[in-house]
Write a structure and sequence with these properties.
Helices cover 67% and strands 2% of the residues. It is mainly alpha-helical. The two termini are 44 Å apart.
Length: 169
């Protein structure tokens, strides 16, 4: 029973994470956006291409074999091997339009906004903390100076640094 609670609790935590909710919203918006792009392709792009032939790109095809004969009643080809290049062209146009709109209307403005936000952040003017090697070098010099009985080159600064490091822990 407790294992079921653990599994259900883990599933609930997974669903409540921000990434999952954002992904769900993206899928819903993407599905709605796909309908818009398909309408643009069918309503604008296909008629422009239709000026050269059929408005339905699915009718564009090529026969690979020599025995391609249309049925006299329906006009459909009943034999032969066909490449439906019009369908591929329509799908490619849909993809290119979708990718272009997503990039120019979503990605590019978001990147510019992030760049402006980063530019507004104040620069950190505080001096960088010393590295471990620098601290160890100062400690070594202080210990050598203390053993020899002579004052260290940095003297009290090294001692203060050591004391500060100990009190921060």
């Amino acid at each position: 029973m407790s294992e079921n609670k653990g599994v259900l609790q883990g599933f609930k935590e997974f669903l409540m994470r921000g990434n999952v909710i954002e992904l769900a919203v993206a899928v819903v918006v993407g599905a709605a956006f796909t309908n818009i792009v398909q309408a643009v392709v069918k309503g604008v792009i296909n008629p422009i291409i239709g000026a050269l032939g059929s408005q339905n790109l699915d009718h564009y095809k090529a026969c690979l074999s020599a025995s391609c004969h249309p049925d006299k009643k329906t006009g459909e080809f009943t034999d032969g091997i066909y490449v439906l290049w019009g369908s591929v062209l329509s799908a490619a146009l849909t993809f290119v339009i979708t990718a272009g709109v997503v990039y120019f209307l979503m990605i590019l403005p978001m990147n510019k906004w992030k760049a402006r936000q980063d530019a507004k952040k104040p620069a950190d003017d505080a001096p960088a903390d010393p590295t471990e090697i620098e601290l160890l070098t100062e400690i070594r010099d202080a210990l050598i100076a203390q053993r020899n009985g002579s004052p260290s080159p940095n003297g009290s600064a090294v001692g203060a640094t050591i004391i500060n490091q100990k009190t921060q822990r």
